[in-house]
Every structure is written in C-alpha cells, then in structure tokens.
Structure to design on (356 residues):
C-alpha cells in the first residue's frame, strides 16, 4: 500500500512540499486511529539509528495511544536493537521490540521522523503488509510515502506533529508522555538554539514542563553526560578536522571523520559520534560543517549542518539522503575522501542553484 491508501482505501492527495498537513490530512489520521478495532495490532517505526526526536516522538505517541486503550502495540526501528545511552532513561522503552520480532502484518503502521522509505531499512515491507500506513514527520525532503501523511516542514521537530495529533485525539499529557516529547523537542532544536525555535515551540515546551518533568535532569542525561572514552575520541576527531575557506562558494566548509578503528580503540559505541557535529559546527570560518562516520568498512553516515548560507538539504538529497536547510544527512560508499569530494561538488552546485 506504499504511497496510497488511507481510510477505507481512500487516496489522500499529497500537499505541496513546503506546506503542512491539510484539514483533510488531519481528519484522515484521526479516522485511522479512532477506527481501530479493539484488538488491532499497531506497529510504530522510527528511522534507523534513532535520535532523540525519532525515539522520543515514537515512544511519546505510543504512550498516548496506550492511554486511549490501544494494547496490542509495538515500537521498533531498523538495525541493531540498541538504544543510545543518553536515551535509555526515556519512558515507554517497554514498547520496544527488535525489528526481527515486529508484527509482520499489523493493521496499522505509524512511521516517525523518516523522510523516505529508505530510512525504514528492513522494516520497509510493513508499508505493503500493513492495512494502513500513517507518517508523522517534519522534513522538507519527505517523499510522502505513507497512505496518510502528516508532514509539516515548518515544525521544529516531529514531536510537534505528534503532540498536535495526540491533542486532537483527546490525549491528556502526563509526565511520561511529556518527557518523551520534551527530549524530542530539545534535541531537534539544539536546546532551543536553532532557527526553528519559535514562540509556538516555547509554548509547547511550557505545556510539557507543566506536567512536572525536570528539565535539568533531562538535559544532563541527554546532552551533558559522555563516557571518558568518547571525550578522548572527540579529541582525536577534532584534531584531524580540516577547514576549507574557499569551499561552498567561499562560505567555508569544515569537516572531520571518525572510523570503526577509532570507536574500537576507545571502546565506544557508534551513537557517541552523533554529538560530534556540535563541536565542529561552531567553527567561525565555515558556514557548512560535516562529520563523516564509518558504519561499515566501505560505508559512511554523513551529518551536515549549515548556519544559513547554504541549504544542506539540497546536498543531502542529491546524494541520496534528506533533511532541512540547516541540518541534513545521507549515507555514502567508498573512502572518506571520496565521500567528502562528492559533498564538495554538491556544495558548489547548491550555491550556484541558490544564486540563480
């Protein structure tokens, strides 16, 4: 049913890529959820290598559905069933199952924070075996691969869309739901430092905090706790960082990389590298920053950030990924030098395209 479907087989027309969900989209999503049989199997899926927004949105929404009486429900993500250490305190982790144990043919599959089918990995077949598919996301590059799509590129995080749908369903926020959504919101806004932070974002944060969650404890656990081995690893990676002032049309490009050998030498898991981009992106002389992280001997996961001069989502989409103007990513093959060379070429193309 990939790309079509919806309630009673209806086709929901995709909205323009730069707009949010239409009233019909919201109505279709509500109809899917309100019409679930009591024994329906619901499968929640977020993207591979889940970050705070993906996991927090999925678990927070799952807890909301549980409060409405949904009982046959699983949450999962593709790849190894490993939750990053900073997110292991999230409520709702009991919903998680390995991808190998996920319902093969659920009545409803709900996808979170995935801009395309490729981000669902080995779970992508559930789009065809499920009775219906609902997508919650905020990436401008989203391909509208669900039967019903709640995709809002103007939202600061997928958790914003999730909270809006929970409110429409009449879910009352409690502390466990709020903690999940707050972690999602703070991670994707950089603790409310990024450009997507609007008055509405702070109003949502206030509603979540009003449930009694402790922002200081959450922030220390999610942002400010790191193994000493990761600190040493970051030092090495930052020591090999390269600044290319002439790249990106003279706006500057800074990048570094970390390999599997680095992780093994310091006894670290791959998730620790997700925070490395924050140390690189502060470089004053570069608009675009990049971290290239080895996932297999010939494959690399790439994180891109921009201060606004270059739309890095154009770069990521051209290389098979997706994201936003200020934050995007993709997976590339070859050597690290080959991956970075492809990025340089797309940076120049993005600058030229923006100037036209």
């Amino acid at each position: 049913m990939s790309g079509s479907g919806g309630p009673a087989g209806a086709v929901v027309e995709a909205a323009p890529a730069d707009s949010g969900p239409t009233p019909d989209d919201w109505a279709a999503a509500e109809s899917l959820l309100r019409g679930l049989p009591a024994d329906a199997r619901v499968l929640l899926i977020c993207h591979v290598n889940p970050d705070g927004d993906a996991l927090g949105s999925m678990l927070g929404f799952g807890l909301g559905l549980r409060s409405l009486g949904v009982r046959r429900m699983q949450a999962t993500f593709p790849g190894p069933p490993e939750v990053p250490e900073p997110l292991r305190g999230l409520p709702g982790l009991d919903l998680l199952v390995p991808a190998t144990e996920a319902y093969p043919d659920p009545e409803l599959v709900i996808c979170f924070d995935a801009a395309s089918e490729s981000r669902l990995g080995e779970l992508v077949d559930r789009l065809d075996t499920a009775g219906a598919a609902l997508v919650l996301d905020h990436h401008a590059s989203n391909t509208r691969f669900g039967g019903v799509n709640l995709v809002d590129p103007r939202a600061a995080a997928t958790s914003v869309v999730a909270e809006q749908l929970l409110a429409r369903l009449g879910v009352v926020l409690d502390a466990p739901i709020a903690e999940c959504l707050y972690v999602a919101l703070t991670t994707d806004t950089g603790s409310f430092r990024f450009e997507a932070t609007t008055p509405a974002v702070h109003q949502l944060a206030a509603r979540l905090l009003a449930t009694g969650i402790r922002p200081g404890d959450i922030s220390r656990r999610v942002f400010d706790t790191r193994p000493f081995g990761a600190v040493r690893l970051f030092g090495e990676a930052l020591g090999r960082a390269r600044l290319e002032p002439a790249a990106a049309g003279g706006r500057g490009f800074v990048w570094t990389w970390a390999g599997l050998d680095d992780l093994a030498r310091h006894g670290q898991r791959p998730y620790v590298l997700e925070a490395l981009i924050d140390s690189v992106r502060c470089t004053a002389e570069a608009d675009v920053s990049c971290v290239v992280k080895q996932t297999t001997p010939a494959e690399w996961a790439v994180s891109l950030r921009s201060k606004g001069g270059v739309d890095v989502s154009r770069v990521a989409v051209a290389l098979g990924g997706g994201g936003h103007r200020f934050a995007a990513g993709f997976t590339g093959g070859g050597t690290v030098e080959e991956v970075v060379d492809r990025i340089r070429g797309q940076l120049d193309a993005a600058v030229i395209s923006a100037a036209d």
